[in-house]
């Protein structure tokens, strides 16, 4: 029998609500696969585009994992809590990396433009290397960020090794160059997720997100690596702890 879908709300939202209920009631238990897109189309008498929008909602909620040729797998009965991190040192960043896995999307090189020249602290026209990857939480396989990693060209002989790392890439940079990262700067801002990144994160284009840009410097204050990490706003939270030093709290750009 074809399921009736009310038109008072967007069709994809109604379908997403129905599928969410079935997952919660274990009609589709954790570890099972959902019906195919075509089967859902036929059941609800809707278009394939509508099905994909509904599945994007489930993916963004952390209920399913979508993989090409592997189907749509149920990974949680109810939406998991946000992925929360408190990052205040390089060790914290390393621990965060070890709780997640970076899956490489593509790698290559590029010529720095006006916009990236500010992040990379170099004039436009310089050549840099780039890795693009999706970082997933180990426990749920949920996509929690899309990362663009920018590498100084002196790292080109080691690019494949750095790209192969699924955990802490700055640790590989330290290893291959035989030095330590001495300083990291970080800028955090709100952004809207562009369409190409939204597709990898399983969310809608222009969804709100937290953008974290980091720069990694060695003891000579050379910028070896930088990254821009885009986290869906409803799946990630970030906290920082401040302690008094010499009787004073650290100065913050926010009052």
Features of the shown structure:
two-stranded antiparallel sheet; alpha+beta; 29% helix; Chorismate lyase; Arc Repressor Mutant, subunit A; 2 domains; 255 residues; single chain; elongated
SSE layout:
Layout: H1 11-24, H2 37-44, H3 48-60, E1 64-67, E2 71-74, E3 83-86, H4 90-98, E4 100-111, H5 114-120, E5 127-137, E6 143-151, H6 159-164, H7 169-177, E7 183-192, H8 195-201, E8 208-217, E9 223-232, E10 236-239
Parallel strand pairs: 3-10
Antiparallel strand pairs: 1-2, 4-5, 5-6, 6-9, 7-8, 8-9
Q: How would you describe this structure to a colleague?
A:
The protein has 2 domains: 64 residues, Winged helix-like DNA-binding domain superfamily/Winged helix DNA-binding domain (Arc Repressor Mutant, subunit A), CATH 1.10.10.10; 157 residues, Chorismate lyase (3-Layer(aba) Sandwich). Helices cover 29% and strands 31% of the residues. The chain has 8 helices and 10 strands. A 6-stranded antiparallel β-sheet has the order 4-5-6-9-8-7. It is elongated and about 60 Å long. The termini are far apart.
